[in-house]
Structure formats: C-alpha cells, structure tokens
Specification:
Blueprint: H1 2-8, H2 15-37, H3 39-47, H4 65-81, H5 85-135, H6 140-143, H7 146-188, H8 190-211, H9 214-237, H10 239-244, H11 248-274, H12 276-302, H13 307-348, E1 369-378, E2 383-393, E3 397-402, H14 408-415, E4 423-428, E5 431-432, H15 438-443, E6 445-449, H16 459-463, H17 472-481, H18 485-489, H19 508-522, E7 526-530, H20 538-552, E8 556-560, E9 572-577, E10 580-585, H21 587-593, H22 596-605
Parallel strand pairs: 3-8, 3-9, 6-7, 7-8
Antiparallel strand pairs: 1-2, 1-4, 4-5, 9-10
Helix pairs in contact: 1-13, 2-5, 2-7, 2-13, 3-4, 3-5, 3-13, 4-5, 5-7, 7-8, 7-9, 7-13, 8-12, 8-13, 9-11, 9-13, 12-13, 17-19, 19-20
Length: 606
C-alpha cells in the first residue's frame, strides 16, 4: 500500500471528481440493494394474494422496519389496484424497473466523473516523469537503457491506471454495495445471513493465496518489456551498421529471445490472474448452493421464512458476488500495479546529484574570463582529470588537443555542469559555477558537438531551439554565418522543410552547419566546440571551419580538436595526456619545442 499512497498524491488536483464519484457510488450501492428488495412485494402480489394488506400498517420502531416497509408497499399496491390484480403487478414491475434504471444511471455518473480523475493522474504522472527524465544528469542514462525508460513512461504508467486507479472506483462502490445488501439481508433473515458469514472468510483466504505471487511475476514481465524495447531502440539507432555487417539475424535472435521470455512470463502472470475470476465465481456459487439448502429448509420445514422473502434474499446474496469478485480482482491489480509503481517511482524519486543551491545567483553577463583550478574528476574509479589548471581570458581562443581518452571532452562536460567536479573548482568572472543557476550558466555558453544532434522538425525550429522568440531574419542571418543559407534555400520548403529523424535527410556537413547556426543564433559569449569538424569530409570541413571562424570572432572559445589543422590560429593550445597538461603555448611556440604537439602534427601530416 506504500506505493499506492505515493501514487494517490497525484489525485489531489482532481479530488472534486473523486468526491462526485463517491457520492454517485453511494447512490448506486443503495439502489443496487433496494432494487432486489423491491422484488418482495412483486412476488407477494404474484404468489400470495391471500397476504393482501388492506389497512395501512402502523410503524412500531426499527425492530419491525422490514415488516412495516413490506406491508406498506403491499398496502399501497392494493389501494392503487383495487380488484384488478394486473394493475398492481404493473405498478410493482414499474417500481422495480425505475429502481434498476436509477441504479445504472448513478453507476454511469460515478464512472463518468472517475474518468477525469484517472486520465488526469495518468497525464500528470507522465508529465512529471518527462520533467524528471529531462532534469536528471547525463550520467544517469549511461547506466540505464533508453528502452527501459521508455517502457516506464508508457506501459508502466498505463499499468498504474489499470490497476491502482481502477481501485478508486471500487473503494466506495463495491464495499457499500455489499454493506447495504447485507443490511437488507439481515432485515430479511438474521439467522440465514450469519450462516453466510461462515463461508465468506474461507472463500477470501483461498482467493488471497492465489494472488500472493503476482507482484513478483508482474515485475519480471515489466522488466522484460523494457529489455525488448531497448533492443528496438538500439536497432533503429544502428540500422545502418546492422545492415552493413549483415547482423540482422543476430539482432533478430536477441529480440526473439527476449520476446520468448516475455511470452512465458506473461503466460504465467495472466494464467494466475485469470484464475481469480473463476475461482471467485465457483466459491460464490458454492455459498449460494449452501444457502439454497439452508434457506430452503427454513421455508419448507421450519416455516420461519416466507417464499417471496427467500427468493429476494437469494437475489441479494447473488448481488454480493459481483462486488466481491471485483474486490478480489482489484487486490490482484494492486499486487500487479505495485511493481509498475515501483519502477515509475524509482525514476521520480531519483535524486539529481547536480544540485542547484537555494541562493544560486543569476549570471547575466561574462566580463573577465574562465579559471579551472586544481580540478580532478572521475566518471567511475579512475581519474580522467588530475589537478587540472587552465585560464581562459575573455575574447581568447584556447584549443585542447591530445589523444582519445586524455580528458578533452570531460572539460566541456564539467564547464556546462553536465557533471560536477570531484575536487577543485571552475570559476567564471571569479565565481564558482556551482553558485550560479544552471539556466543562467548554460545561457552563457554555446555548444557544438561532433555528433550533430538535430530533431525531427523543420530547419527553422532546429536553428531557433535556443531562442524561442527569434525572428525569421535572425534565423536567416545565423544560417548565413554558418554557411548554411545556400543549401537550406535549395530544400523543397526552404526553412520550413522537415529534416527527418535526427536530421537524416541532410548530409553530415549540412547537419553540422545547422548545429553551428543554432549556436550562432543563441549568441552566447562563451563557445565550446567539441571536435566539431572531425566527422566531415574535406569540402564540408572547409565550409564548417569557415563558419566556425566567423562564429568565434569576438567570443571566448574553447575548442576541443582532433584535427590539428583546424586550431593553428588559436591563442593558446593546451596538450593533454592522461588528464594532465604536458605542453602549452601558441602553435609556433609548440612547434619550436619539438615535443608532443609537434609529433601529433607530424603524424597527421601523412
């Protein structure tokens, strides 16, 4: 129930619909019981005309309430019909029909209002999950498979709606239906009702034993669903490589292995779940059978119960079966929904390690420079940066070079606070970046990465990502600086052309120039270029390099470079090896040193 309480918090904004649902469920439960009780006078009119009540009965207290109501309805029917018994029968049938109509009308209204609550909670949980997914640091997703996260925000949230939130319909309606029905059953025959209560706990114990293993089985099903969704996501992302290496059969085998496991787990879960309904129904009919025997004895042998009351009593007893079955099914739903809620709440309750201070300041401008002081950082066990120091004055371009794994891209990740340093500090204008709000820090920076991350949207919307209020002229100007305007103009719909999933309708160079245009439009004072040209051909590289040089004018730039030919004009070149600076200076100075940098340049010249 702990998870249920946590999920129930999301129902708070929709509580008015919950109260309306409760109100109409109370009416439904009341009329559900009354509709069967109303059968007694109808049966009396049909089968025991000698019991006609011709004098209005007198109310003698709660102890005689059942007899009083029965005699009063009998009296009213006889007063209305006179000698025409069919007239009385039509009246009683009309009463029963009206009661059943009202019962079902109130049932509809109860379900109508709970729909807003259920779907509202579903929407809010998904919105909250998406906000959390976006807020969590990049490091979180290096441990999680994307398909598993997708499964949690889709099928797991839906499972919560089907299991937990369906209980909200049952919490009031079914118990009250049972309560009102039992009260009327006690009114008809206390002895017979007490006899029924001997069997109900036995039936409940049997049903509860069936449901004990449901949570474990449901957890396995949901985890496996996340597994094969991850395989689908990876397949779509790497389809080109899969086809190039003829690995379709290998991935198909991995996928079918997962779906086969899902098939077996689902079968076990559903077969156990499906057992609840027939088991509950059989146990209910068993109780009815025992009732027929015991009640029949009271009517035929003991003469302590009249036939009309007994038939209505049997209808009431059967009326308990439906809500009792619904409650037992709902208890299975709770067990099944528990594992889904656990997986959803795991994401919602994950603490973000990149914490923004309560008194964090907004940094609107960049005035002096960047300082990286004694920074050490590790992703897992080994340090990627060790006691790293660097100063980047305002308006200067600093290039970071070195072999793969030397820590170049890590510096970009730390400066943008995708990760926090383990030791040391990074300062902008003399203030630690951890003292800024994340939004204002990232507003100071533009990022162009090796992988051009574009979205399935128009060219215009991709360029305008960092500036929602950008005018068309500003977008075109940014595209011109990025050498992208010419090729955009040739697209079928120009700036309104959809570029497809991840921009796959464009070439590598075109995608990269759109990324640069996006950074230019944002117009940040600090630009971080993470191997922005390494994946391009010579012609595209020339166009992109030209765009980068135009973009870096009058800006502070940190350039992480693999191709050394692209950073020869940098004010300072920093050479890294295993997370430490081994050389530092201009291109000319480093070439004269005849050290690591010169070796790297020489290697790339061939």
């Amino acid at each position: 129930m702990e998870y249920f309480k946590k999920i129930l918090r999301f129902a708070n904004p929709y509580r008015k619909y919950g109260f309306l649902n409760i109100f109409f469920n109370i009416l439904y439960a009341l009329f559900s019981a009354l509709s069967f009780a109303a059968l007694i006078p109808m049966l009396d009119v049909l089968f025991t005309p000698e019991k006609k009540v011709l004098v209005e009965p007198i109310y003698e207290g709660m102890g005689q309430l059942k007899d009083y109501l029965q005699d009063y309805i009998n009296f009213r029917v006889n007063a209305y019909s006179g000698d025409d018994e069919m007239k009385g029968l039509v009246l009683v049938i009309g009463l029963v029909l009206i009661l059943f109509l009202l019962k079902n009308f109130f049932n509809y209204l109860a379900m109508y209002f709970i729909t807003f609550l259920r779907n509202g909670v579903l929407k809010d949980i998904r919105n909250k999950m998406y906000a959390k997914i976006v807020d969590l640091p990049i490091s979180y997703y290096s441990e999680k498979r994307k398909g598993d996260v997708i499964a949690r925000i889709t099928s797991d949230v839906l499972e919560i709606q089907h299991s937990f939130l369906s209980i909200l319909e049952l919490i009031v309606r079914e118990p009250l239906t049972i309560l009102f029905t039992i009260l009327i059953m006690f009114g008809i025959s206390t002895k017979l009702t007490l006899f029924v209560f001997i069997f109900i706990p036995i039936a409940g114990m049997i049903i509860s034993r069936i449901g004990k293993s449901l949570k474990k089985k449901s957890d396995r099903v949901q985890k496996e669903q996340g597994e094969f969704l991850s395989i689908v996501e990876e397949t779509l992302g790497g389809l080109r490589v899969i086809k190039a290496f003829n690995s379709e059969s290998r991935f198909y085998k991995t996928f079918t292995t997962s779906t086969t496991r899902f098939f077996h787990f689902s079968n076990k879960l559903l077969n156990r779940q499906n057992l609840a309904s027939p088991a509950g129904e059989f146990l209910g009919i068993l109780v009815i059978g025992v009732l027929l025997w015991f009640g029949g004895k009271m009517v035929l042998v003991d003469k302590t119960l009249d036939a009309a009351s007994f038939i209505a009593y049997m209808g009431l007893a059967y009326n308990i079966l439906t809500p009792a079955k619904a409650i037992s099914k709902a208890s299975f739903g709770v067990k099944k929904g528990n594992s889904a809620a656990e997986r959803v709440l795991e994401i919602l309750e994950t603490e973000n390690p990149i914490v923004e201070k309560k008194e964090a300041v907004v940094k609107p401008t960049f005035d002096k420079g960047i300082e990286i002081n004694n920074v050490s950082f590790k992703y897992e066990d080994e340090y990627v940066l060790k006691k790293f120091n660097l100063k980047v004055p305002k308006g200067k371009t600093v290039a970071l070079v070195g072999q793969s794994g030397s820590g170049k891209s890590t510096i970009a990740n730390l400066m943008t606070r995708f990760y926090d340093v383990n030791e040391g500090e990074i300062k902008i204008d003399g203030l630690d970046i951890r003292d800024f709000t994340k939004k204002s820090l990232r507003n100071l920076m533009g990022l162009v990465t090796q992988d051009s991350i574009l979205f399935n949207d128009t060219v215009k919307n991709n360029i305008g990502l960092g500036k929602a209020d950008a005018t068309e002229d500003e977008i075109i100007e940014a595209a011109k600086i990025a050498n992208a305007h010419d090729f955009i103009s040739e697209l079928p719909l120009g700036y309104n052309t959809n570029i497809g999933d991840s921009g796959n309708k464009l070439s590598g160079g075109q995608k990269q120039r759109l990324s640069i245009a996006r950074a230019v439009l944002k117009n940040p004072p600090i630009m971080i270029l993470d191997e922005a040209t390494s994946a391009l051909d010579t012609e595209s590289e020339r166009l992109v390099q030209d765009a980068l040089e135009k973009m870096m004018q009058n800006r502070t730039s940190i350039v992480i470079a693999h191709r050394l030919s692209t950073i020869q004009n940098a004010d300072t070149i920093v050479v890294l090896q295993k997370g430490e600076i081994v050389e530092q200076g201009s291109h000319t100075q480093l070439m004269e040193k005849d050290g690591v940098y010169k070796k790297l340049v020489t290697m790339q010249s061939f």
